[in-house]
Amino acid sequence: MLLRAYAAGIFPMAESAASSDLRWFDPPVRALIPLDSRFHISRRLVRKLRHNPYRVTLNRAFQDVMQGCAEPQQGRETTWINQEILRLYTTLHQRGHAHAIEVWEDDELVGGLYGVSLGSAFFGESMFSRKKDASKIALVHLVALLRNYGYTLLDTQFQTPHLGRFGTFEVERDTYLAMLNTVINTQAVSFPNNPAWDHLLAGILSLQPVTQIS
Fold first, then answer.
1. Which of 43, 91, 98, 142 is the most buried (most CB within 10 A)?
2. H/E segment holding residue 30
3. pTM score, two decimals?
4. ∠ CA(178), CA(180), CA(207), 5° rounding?
């Protein structure tokens, strides 16, 4: 049912972590992160990526990432991730439809993100940081991964100032659904167990025109 909802442009959220109910959302506008040269990385973040201060993995600690996303953070004191959301997305992960990118400092999980994969679309659900830029680094790695493995749509649901810095743009519901109907029937290549991140990042950084690295 959850995958059918995503295919129809609908996604669930809980009112709070303590709530046992789910609410279903179909926003009139949708925020998308571009997977081409419109994806913008700041000059400072490019330098940090090249310095490589963290270790990045894929699908090594899915539940831990979800629990990190459920933690209160500055500007987000409450969460929409309840126990039912945790159960549902863990099940999707076990079935190969939900993925997490983890960011580590030594053996400590300091950031990450997770989302749902369907066809050649990826639906970003949430991200978190315990150290500076950890979630941004996770996002850049996600875009590099999606580009390399044939994904064509990265849905981030709602526009935020944080995501806007990466070139996120909005489309109306009808446009979004038309795009979605195409990409969910186009199968992307399955993610590898151990991505060659340096190779993937080199590809996405080469797309950054000097005018976009600010």
1. 142
2. strand 29-32
3. 0.92
4. 105
